[in-house]
Amino acid sequence: MATAKAHTNIALVKYWGKKDQELIIPQTDSLSLTLDEFYTTTTVDFDQELASDQVMINGQQLGGPAARKVTRLLDIVRQRSDLTARARVDSHNHVPTAAGLASSASAFAALAGAASQAAGLQLDRRGLSRLARRGSGSATRSVYGGLVEWQAGNDDQTSYAVPIMEEVDFGIEMIAILIDTRQKKISSRFGMQQSVATSPYYRLWPEVVAHDMVAVKKAIAARDVDQIGAIAEENALRMHALTLSAAPGFTYFDSDTLKAMAIVRELRANGINCYFTMDAGPNVKVIYDRVNREAVYSSLADQLGADRLVVAKPGPGIKIWND
Ligand code: 2P0
To answer: With a cut of 0.85, is the ipTM above it?
Structure first.
């Protein structure tokens, strides 16, 4: 029996599209910031007495396709460790308000950590990152803290994350704006598949990412939050253009997403530097240097409500222990 705690991450240069659906090999590299505020703690216990895997999330039994994804990852662990026992999985998502940023990134990283440890596999962090990837792409990066690169690679051996700066020694922070915390209608898995298959702009995406990866690593080395934010904002808009230009087109934005984007642009026009990024949902994350925290926070709170805001700082990598 073992437990793991993994934090979620927000991509500054996004992953959007797979070249192998089964192994979850992405079309491109990506780069993210692991956050302190949002994490998952998961305990896995393999037990011969169980007839099937039992998965609890926040005290509720999980069924259907979500439970099957968990069993698929457990099957990989069982196969590698010659275990046949089914597992009891008890997972808790720690999010400050009514869900919404509960992410498959922290969930599958924690599951990979706890399951591999409980099964007696001695995985190093690269091995853990590769295993987490089999659950969900973004989980690949949540094994590490701080700024993390997922190197796309070509196969199971070569697709894993590497730390760029685990202990972030400059002022980058994010405010998460909780716009709509309900389950999204179009999963990222399906959404990215549609973009790859039908957007005429998708063929430009690998070029965009290749350029942004070089630029963002330079900006990180220079500890230039404004440059990092500007790259992230442009990259996010270009990712979302791949959903709008799919056939049929779709978007994760809602009206409050656009409102939050406008507030960020207005703050910038008034000399308070901050930048937005969005993932496969309507919530907006605002990137800024901590010297601007009060100015950014008070303006967002005035216009959107303080109850919808969460300040997040760079967070740590995975921790795993035996119970
Ligand atoms: C990212 N996102 O880089 C991108 C940006 C959302 C937008 O990774 O199919 O849950 O499980 O690999 O990782 C969300 O997609 O998708 C995601 P799967 P995942 O963070």
So the answer is: yes
